[in-house]
Design a protein that fits this description.
By secondary structure, this protein is mainly alpha-helical. About 80% of the residues lie in helices and about 0% in strands. The chain is elongated and about 45 Å long.
Length: about 55
């Protein structure tokens, strides 16, 4: 069985809690793939905002 690194789990949960204001319980209910998808989506938004800011 492969175990997901606990430090990485905390990083992902903190990132999502900070940006989405979801509770600890809500975050724990997410499947691993879904949690990663939310992290990717938020990261993509930040990248787009940074690019737009650089262009102005």
């Amino acid at each position: 069985m492969i175990v997901y690194p606990l430090d990485r789990l905390y990083q992902e949960m903190a990132y999502l809690a900070y940006h989405l204001h979801w509770s600890y319980r809500e975050l724990l209910q997410l499947e691993h793939g879904e949690r990663l998808r939310w992290v990717d989506e938020i990261s993509a938004i930040h990248t787009q905002l940074e690019i737009a800011e650089e262009e102005t």
